Amino acid sequence: MKRRNFVGLASTTLAMMPFMGFRSFEDILPSADLVKPDWLIKLIKMNDENLKGYSSSKITDPANKYFGAFYDGNLYITPGHVGGFLISACNAISTPESSYFKSTQLLKEMQDASQGLLALQHTDGTIDLLDTNFHSTPDTAFLIKELAPAFNRFKKTPMQGAEKTVSNLEKFLKLAGEALTVGGIHTPNHRWVVSAALMRVYQVFPDQRYFVRINQWLSEHIDLDPDGQYTEKSTGGYSGIVDRSLVTVAIGLKKPELLDPVRKNHNMMQYYLHPNGEVVTEASNRQDKGTIGNLDGYYYSLRYLSILDNNGEYANMCRMIEKRSFNALGGYLGYFLEDPMLWKDLPSDKPLKTNYAKAFPYSGVVRVRRNEWDCTILSSNPGWLTFHKEQVMLQAMRLASSFFGKGQFQSSEIKQEGNAWVLKSTLEGPYFQPFPSDQIPGDGDWDKMPKSKRKQSEVQILTTTVNISESGNGVQVDIDMQGTDHVPVALELIFRKGGTFAGVKEHPSKKDAYLFDQKEGSYTMNGQSIKFGPGQSAHRNVQLRGGLPSVDAPSVYITGFTPFKHTLFIS
């Protein structure tokens, strides 16, 4: 069949399908006569290439306890790495478009790997995450929610000689299911990952105990705040995982109401997009905090709901991901193979919001976006301001003073006053009088004479107020620090690596540090610039005692002494 006709048939066949409307897993099994779209074929071929990377790290010594498993990049032998191979292998060997379809050689590798995986499983059904967690139900769940559906496709693909591999994986999944019904968790997202994994094991081994455990977790209610954010605020990591997990549970339990938190989170994320498609991560409570984040982890739930709801904004976000990082979608191949609704073309794009000023009080975030630039203001964060354009980024603005070793500025809240957003803090630096004579211990132990029982004297105070407002094609930052006089101050502008400065001078002794005393400076990357100014340079001490250590990034410093009043423009 010619490719042009092949694609045409795919469109015709798909058009006849009842795509719209919520369905259970029983309703979404792909029919044999359906034709996969080109983008899915590309992901299948990518998965084939991924499998080639495992062979060189296989444990081939039959006497080794973990024979058939694979070393990872750290020379660890981990169930996550071995499970990753088996997920890819199950998807490939059961997919006609794969070069490994019904491959006897791959089946042999799968048999060995499944034996290695069993050797890595504890008798209680759990596995280890060697980086941090041992006998871990959550990490078992992370693996199972992907491995179980991949195994299901493999099991339904008739192959001579597959019995041992099927038996090994059934044993692994069944024992893991036992762990998932009783095991505990660490973090909020783990509840939904465990629930999704139980839902997936149910598809292999129907057991009502799995539903009981899922509903036990669901009885705690989904941890979504009025901003549309989950507890961990992990926009670059766990929020996408929660969204995927909730879609899985919603489909499995036939509870479409569980999709509502996912929609609300997607709607919020539209306001967390930088001009280049990266996402705001500075408010996260997890390891993605302050990292370069993206929307990749949201793709499956965005695509699912864009088609289910005919939502053009979600479709726009999907296309943004496809354009920016198509290869990242390979991690979701199993979802796409399972559900032909996802093969349908995305709805037409609806423009995303690019011109707004919006507060997210539960997250301690204010977002200002004016088309080609955006600004993020953060409370309870020492990096309280960012300013992004498509090519160049001010990743953080920080303010420190040498005030009793606790002068790193951050504000517990953001208040709006007129057209300005206000951050504020007040610090005290007391001295302490002799301990009450009738309470002095006989052994002179300092720890037995707590400061809380000593009278304070000569209390020093430093009050810092930062006003942030829009000005021209950017923002104006007004800083006012007063109370105790002659305290050294350093205002720090941290930029992303890769650009060049103008209007600043290198610090004489500190790498990637620049002093700034001119009317205007700039930082340029890929032909685009952020301008800032004016500056001042009253001293050279840019690493103040009590301030956070400098980061590995080019940073500009404006220095002075209290009382410190300075207005800085960024555009």
Overview of the molecule:
- The structure is a single chain.
- This protein is an alpha+beta fold and 571 residues long.
- Helices cover 32% and strands 21% of the residues.
- The strands form 3 sheets. The protein has a 9-stranded mixed β-sheet, with no helix packed on it.
- Helix 4 (104-119) packs parallel to helix 6 (163-182), helix 5 (137-155) packs parallel to helix 7 and helix 7 crosses helix 9 (238-253).
- The longest helix has 20 residues, at 163-182.
- The protein is globular, with a radius of gyration of 28 Å.
- The chain starts with a helix and ends with a strand.
Compact summary:
Helices cover 32% and strands 21% of the residues.
Helix content: 25-40%
The main sheet orders its strands as: 3-4-5-6-7-12-18-15-14
Note the gap between the termini.
Answer: 57 Å
Structural class: alpha+beta
Uncertain runs with pLDDT below 50, 5 residues or more?
Answer: 1-20
Tell me the number of structural domains: 3
SS field, number of helical segments: 13
Count of beta strands: 19
Quaternary status of these chains?
Answer: single chain
| Strand residue content | 15-25%
Shape: globular
Alpha-carbon Rg, integer: 28 Å
User: What value does the average pLDDT take?
Assistant: 94
| Largest sheet geometry | 9 strands, mixed
Task: Give the helices and strands, then pairings.
Layout: H1 3-15, H2 38-52, H3 79-93, H4 104-119, E1 127-129, E2 133-136, H5 137-155, H6 163-182, H7 188-204, H8 208-218, H9 238-253, H10 259-269, H11 299-309, H12 312-325, H13 333-338, E3 355-360, E4 365-370, E5 373-378, E6 385-389, E7 393-401, E8 415-417, E9 420-432, E10 456-471, E11 474-483, E12 488-495, E13 500-502, E14 505-506, E15 513-515, E16 521-525, E17 528-533, E18 555-561, E19 564-570
Parallel strand pairs: 15-18
Antiparallel strand pairs: 1-2, 3-4, 4-5, 5-6, 6-7, 7-12, 8-9, 9-10, 10-11, 11-19, 12-18, 13-16, 14-15, 16-17, 17-19
Helix pairs in contact: 2-3, 3-4, 3-5, 4-6, 5-6, 5-7, 6-7, 6-8, 7-8, 7-9, 9-10, 11-12
